[in-house]
Amino acid sequence: DEGSSTSSSGGSGGGKKLTLGFSQVGSESGWRSANTDSVKASAKEAGYNLKFSDAQQKQENQISAIRSFIAQKVDVIAFSPVVVTGWDAVLKEAKAKKIPVVLTDRSVETSDESLYVTLVGSDFTDEGRRAAKILEKVLEKAGHKGAVKIAQLEGTTGAAPAIERAKGFKEVMDADHKDDWKIVVSQTGDFTRAGGKQVMAAFLQSNPDIDVLFAHNDDMGIGAIQAIEAAGKKPGKDILIVTVDGVKDGFVAMSEGKINAIVECNPLLGPQLMEVVQKVKDGETVERWIKTEESDFMQDQAKEVLPSRKY
Ligand code: AHR
């Protein structure tokens, strides 16, 4: 162990404070708010000078924020990319000025691997696989036999968690449930409650006989619950629901019997991020992907686990 580098003196030798430019996606979900709080608190704890910018879910805002961090000559840039593509130009500008870039939460697709140092975040493909595996248990518990008609609420179009959760889920479905499971409708709800509610209402119009909802995050699931209730159906019974994240409101809905299972995606990435940022600034080698550890929860665990949820 190289030892903790999140000292309150702000890192090596207690000299000049490390300046970190951080571009956040937005504030679309409970997960995102928890992530923002974690980043801000950990930067403070580490004694860094944090320049925080909220992109309001727009890539062009993130690109401008990164350009402004470059102009301000920050020590390290960290960002959680709204979408996976379209970053090469701005990342090349950072590289030309020798400012290292750390990705957090979400990945990018780039032609040149050297344009970012590392990713601190979850394995979203695995979250999709885990969602399909836990759905098997949910169906068994509910005594559901035969064909399964699935509605999928996707995250933001083009975002890593939306692409990869759909991919992981489909992978298990194609391998183990080719004959019985079918995704009958799938559309983006942009990771928001309002989006989840609106799209689910439309799903119920076109496909009133949906058995299962797989929502890429809790917030869309919670919005969908409102639409399901408005349509006179019981969420968690008439329509079985699996979501991703595990924020407090998700656990509340699960303890009320309205969500059947949650695949955890941990937003508390701040402490690990600050540690990596210091190492990168000090020129130490870091792993290419620092993965987050996560669990899965069934409805019968909700009441017991709820009080200990940290976000
Ligand atoms: O990138 C992580 C995802 O972004 C979370 O699952 C979702 O809630 C958030 O908006």
TrEMBL record:
Short name of any one Pfam family annotated for the protein: Peripla_BP_4
UniProt keyword terms in alphabetical order: Signal
- This protein's source sits in the domain of life called Bacteria
Name the InterPro entries for this protein: Peripla_BP_I (IPR028082), SBP_2_dom (IPR025997), TAT_signal (IPR006311)
Give the UniProt subcellular location, in the record's own words: Cell envelope
- Annotated region Disordered: the residues are 1-21
Provide the Periplasmic binding protein domain boundaries.
Answer: 22-284
The UniProt record lists the keyword Methyltransferase: no
Q: Where is the signal peptide?
A: none
Q: Which CDD domains match?
A: PBP1_galactofuranose_YtfQ-like
Where is it mostly found?
other
Q: Which PANTHER family match?
A: D-ALLOSE-BINDING PERIPLASMIC PROTEIN-RELATED, GALACTOFURANOSE-BINDING PROTEIN YTFQ
- Family in the record: Belongs to the bacterial solute-binding protein 2 family.
Which protein is depicted? ABC transporter substrate-binding protein
Q: Which organism is it from?
A: Streptomyces ureilyticus
